[in-house]
Amino acid sequence: QLQLVESGGGLVQPGGSLRLSCAASGFNLDSYATGWFRQAPGKDREGVSCISSSGGVTNYADSVKGRFTISRDNAKNTVYLQMNSLKPEDTAIYYCATGCRISSANYWGQGTQVTVSS
Length: 118
Known about the structure:
Blueprint: E1 3-7, E2 10-12, E3 18-25, E4 34-39, E5 46-51, E6 58-60, E7 68-73, E8 78-83, E9 92-98, E10 112-116
Parallel strand pairs: 2-10
Antiparallel strand pairs: 1-3, 3-8, 4-5, 4-9, 5-6, 7-8, 9-10
């Protein structure tokens, strides 16, 4: 069964950190560029960050540049999103997917909730 599973979400205070993981099973994630996306209540899903299949190229939304870092460990078939200096506006469900664009991503995880609140 082809599956992506996110983990690592939770409740954190402003200024805190979380590391999200996106683990693939049933296929080799290193065949795909992999992206992190998020959807806040009442808002459209948006791209947060993406990493090439080799890990050599990364990009970030302007809103998270300098605070978030995407990485991958192809030996573990996993992509990570390190989130530092979290803000309340980062509160959302975070999804990983195979691809850098919502319109073209073909496999999606179920999402993990991130809540930034004091």
